[in-house]
Amino acid sequence: MRQPAGGHTLVEVLFSLGLVAVAAGICVPMIMAGVETARARAATRYLAAQMGVARFQAVGRGAMVALHFTQDATGVAVTMVVDGNRNGVRTIEIEAGTDRRIDGPFRLDDLFPGVVIGLPAGAPGQAVQLGGSNLLSFSPSGTSTSGTVHVLGRDGSQFAVRVLGATGRTRVLRFDAAMEQWVDAW
Question: Domain segments of the chain: what residues?
Answer without folding.
Answer: 10-61+106-184
